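LOG
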Amino acid sequence: MKAEGNQQTNFPGTQKKENDSLVVFRQVSKVYDGQYAVRAVVSLTLAVRRGEFFCLAGPSGSGKTTVLNLMAGLDRPSRGSIFLDGQELNALNGHDLARLRLFKVGFVFQELNLLPVLTAWENIEFTLLLQKVPASERRQRVREIMEELDLLDLANRKPAAMSGGQQQRVAIARAVVGRPLLVLADEPTANLDSRTAGRLIELMHRLNQTHGLTFVIATHDQQVMEQAHRVLHLRDGQIESEFCRS
C-alpha cells in the first residue's frame, strides 16, 4: 500500500515507496570517535511501518537514543543508509534535513525543552510559526489540539507553573500540532509517577489510533511496551530480540 507524504514540502531525492514503511535502516552503524571509539549502533537493519506504535527497549547505553537521533537526521550514520518517507537522509544537506524535521518529525524529549518564557499556548504555537502557518489557522489548530489533550485551562501558564505531567502533555501537543508523519519520544514517562505515566501512555496511544501518527518511543517503561505494536530490544547497539503484537 502506498501512503502519501506531507504535501507541504518537496525535498530532493524522494524515491518511489515500495511498501508501507515510514522509516528504514539498512545495515546502519554509528561510531562516535574520540580517545576511545564508541560503537553506539552496529549493522542495524529495521523498518517502522506507517501508523505503528513502536518501542525501542534496552538498558542504558544500548543505543536507543542514538537510533532516535539517526531517524531524525540529528546524527548521520558512519555506515549504511536511512530512509524517512522514502527519502535517503544521507542525500540531504543540513538545510533540507532541518526542513524535513520541521514538517515531518515531532519530538518529545525526556527533558521536555519547553521554552520557559512562553505560555503553554505559545509553546505549542511555536512549531506553526516556524512552519509559517497563517495566524487564523494557527489559532484554530492550537485550540483544537489543546481541547483534544485537555489543556485549554493551562493556555496562559508558563512551564514553571505546571506539573510534570502537564508539561509533558504540552510537549506532546507541540510535537503533533505541526501534523508530522513521525513522532519520536525519548523516555517520555521517565520523570513521572506511575499514574501520570499511565495517562500519558493512553494519550499517545489514542493519538496513534485516531490520527494514524507513527510513534517511535525509546523507553524502559513496561507500561509503554504493553501498548506497543512492536518492541525491539537493543543491547550494545544491536537487536537482541523482537516482540510483535500485531
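LOG (cont.) second protein
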Amino acid sequence: MHKKALVLFSGGQDSATCLAWALDRYEQVETIGFDYGQRHRVELDCRITVLQNLRDAFPHWAARLGQDHLLDLGLLGQISETALTADKVITFEQSGLPNTFVPGRNLIFFTFAAAVAYRRGISVLVGGMCETDYSGYPDCRDDTLKSLQVTLGLGLDQRLVIETPLMWLDKSQTWVMAKSLGGPGLVEIIRRDTHSCYVGDHSTLHAWGYGCGKCPACELRAKGFDAFARAVI
C-alpha cells in the first residue's frame, strides 16, 4: 500500500541512517530538510554531500532517490532562545531539559513534511527520533509521534504513517544498522560526511566523525561509535 516515503533528512548520523533504511524498503524516496537558523547550519551543506555520495556508492538506491526539498523555517529560530539557535553555553534548565531543546521543532517539521508529502502523493514520513539515546526532548517520544500521526492523518483526510526506525536503538545499534544496510561503505559515508555536533564544528575529525567532541551530540556519537568499533573487532 505504501510505496513512497519522505525522509526528514538533517544531514546528521541518525537521519542518514534512516534515509538508507527507507531506500532499502520503498520504491521511491524523497528527502526534506529545514533551515531554521540552527547554530550548526553546516549540516545543511553536509546533506548535499551525503546525498551525492549515496548516489555514487549505491546505484541501486540512486534509482529510488528522488527530489530533495529544503524549507526555510527561519521563524522558528527567531522565536527560539535556545543553545541550538543562538551562541549559548549548553546547560540544563530547571525543567530538567537541556537548553538545546527547540520547543515544537519536530511537531513543526512533521507538519510541513506532511504538507509536502500530500502534494507529492507520499504516504510515509520517516524520522530519526529515538527515546534510547536522546536528551529527554518530549517531541522525540514514541507517544508524541504516534499521536501526531493520527492528527496529521485526520487533518489531511488520508492514511499517513510516521516511521521511526531508531526509536528503541542506542547510537551503537544505529551504527550496526548502517553497516547491515550498506556495509562499511555506508558506515564511512556516515562517519565522514554527516554532521551531528551542536556547536557546528566541522573542522575537527575524530574516529567517529567531525565535531567539537564535547557537546552532548558529540559525546553520544563518540560513545556509540566506540562501542560499535569494539564489537566489530
